[in-house]
Write a structure and sequence with these properties.
By secondary structure, the protein is mainly α. It folds into 2 domains: about 1-50, no CATH class; about 55-120. The chain contains 6 helices and 2 strands; from the N terminus they run H-H-E-E-H-H-H-H. The protein has a two-stranded antiparallel ribbon with strand order 1-2. A hairpin with a 7-residue loop joins strand 1 and strand 2. It is elongated, with a radius of gyration of 28 Å.
């Protein structure tokens, strides 16, 4: 490969070397192929570059929104992924909550007792006001 760098010229060779793919593993999992750019990674140790395919209509909507919000594409996509992950966590918590109540439903007497206890803490309203 070194010979191809020489033929490509010094600038092209440095760009090719900077874009050399690396392979990372996580706790014994199968390797995750990441195309990390060393210059980019130098200042940002906790990021990875990924390439994904999305519909053109989605990309256009993303571009309009991120320009309007003055965000980089990376920031906009990261925020969207984080919101999706948070929603998935909430959905899982909701699912577990519902399953728990299906296994052991509240009794009407329990619900009435809680409602009465809460209502007892409320202040009375004067009808004059």
């Amino acid at each position: 490969m070194a010979s191809s760098f020489k033929r490509a010229g010094p600038l092209r060779a440095s760009l090719l070397a900077a874009h050399e793919p690396i392979c990372a593993t996580h706790a014994g999992d199968a390797p995750l192929a990441t195309a990390a750019i060393r210059r980019y990674e130098f200042g940002m140790k906790n990021v990875a570059k990924v390439a994904v395919s999305i519909p053109l209509q989605t990309l256009r909507a993303l571009e309009r929104a991120r320009v309007r919000l003055r965000k980089t594409r990376s920031a906009a996509v990261t925020e969207a992924i984080e919101q999706w992950l948070n929603a998935e966590e909430v959905s899982e918590a909701d699912r577990l909550y519902v399953e728990g109540y299906l296994r052991q439903p509240e009794q009407n007497a329990d619900v009435a007792a809680v409602a009465a206890a809460v209502a007892a803490t409320w202040e009375r309203w004067d009808e004059e006001g």
